[in-house]
Amino acid sequence: MQPKILLYTTLIITMVSCKKIVAIDPPKSELVINTVFSSDAIAEQAIAGLYASLLAGYASGDLTSITYLAGLSSDELIPGSGGGIDFYNNAILSNNAVISTLWSDPYKEIYIANSILKGLNLQTTNISQTLRQQLSGEARFVRAFSYFCLINLFGDVPLTLTTDYNINENIARTSKEVVYDQIITDLKDAQNLLSGDYIKNERVRANKWVATALLARVYLYRGQWSDAEIQASAVIGNNATFNFCPLDKVFLMNSNEAIWQLSRVDANSADAATFVISATNPVNATIRPSVVASFDPADKRKTSWITSRTYNGNTYYYPTKYKATEVTPVTEYTTILRLAEQYLIRAEARVWQGKLTVAASDISVLRRRAGLANITASTKEAMLAMIEKERVFELFTEWGHRWFDLKRSPSLTIAGNTRADDLLKPLEKSWQSTDTLYPIPLDQLLKDPAMANAQNPGY
């Protein structure tokens, strides 16, 4: 990387590190934007910086990641001595430093994305039309992904689509549904702007299929069943690009199942280093024994993706989806979107539409790869229960899927409650329904006048 390109990339990332979380000092940012978008080469580095910023925070796979923290909040993980007990007990304080990071990191990506979009629209921008379209689609995708994470962690959040500090320094929370509308708009725009090809055959930058896969998930979360089925089917139908591979190869760099991954610079994903137990007692987190016991003994996902160690008479289970604990050689990328989830999305969307037979077929595809028998269509309730279990077996310790599923799925016993109430209340005496949302960071409430009295209930 040339020194000037590195300098401009660093500037566009670090200009979000100011005292206000969603507000940026305007003179410096205007200067950087005009400089960064003076050529194709430098603009390419700006988008590379956006992905690098993702990996430096909540997408890292380390102890500050959504995978780790949301796994503790659900019924998936048990903390070791490395921290996270407040997430495990769902007793998080608003001045928690990690909560502040979970809030501010996505807003860093949103600001960078907004800056890129602004720069691409400048009349003085000396960027080719093809690259302008590509970078615009990528920026819109990352903005949508960042907002998806924010609203599923915090609920209503400020919706900022600008770099204007006059707006960002005093902005109220926006309804979650309005934010979802913007996410869908961004993802549809990304679909239209991006090609279906991966750049340099590396699955680490957004393309049309990446946007489509996230859009399928968004529609599922919103209960737009037909739309979710259509988008998931589009990804599944692209079997020239996406195919299942053996379980021990799913999380390898550029695997056939990967839709979107992130790559660290000359290093493996941090997930293995976070979870794999070495020759000492468990430090970070282990899988709940009840989760391990829920697997069919013949399920190959259990034998391939879970390993145990015994210390002082106690057996600990840990995920081995990622196995490369050393920094190099690089064999594993952080996998964010993959094919198996699209089958789960389509199956659930089909059940809600009464398409039980084809939904059962989707689940059977995953079960056959795991060495299990096909299932047959049953009642709607039985199928939804099976899909809930299959999502655990397939997606455990990935990107907070279990935590988000518990929050979005209705209770089986009490109207208005969620599956989180059903399953976490027996595990945590202090559980409250309001715990499904994390607290808004205290520093955000103090610095943003429009949010002064906008804390989530229960905190």
TrEMBL record:
Pfam families: SusD-like_3, SusD_RagB. It is found in: Cell outer membrane. It comes from the Bacteria. Keywords: Cell outer membrane, Membrane, Signal. PROSITE patterns: PROKAR_LIPOPROTEIN (PS51257). Residues 306-459 form the RagB/SusD domain. Residues 34-220 form the SusD-like N-terminal domain. One of its GO terms (cellular component) is cell outer membrane. Belongs to the SusD family. This is RagB/SusD family nutrient uptake outer membrane protein. It comes from Chitinophaga oryziterrae. The lineage of its organism: Bacteria, Pseudomonadati, Bacteroidota, Chitinophagia, Chitinophagales.
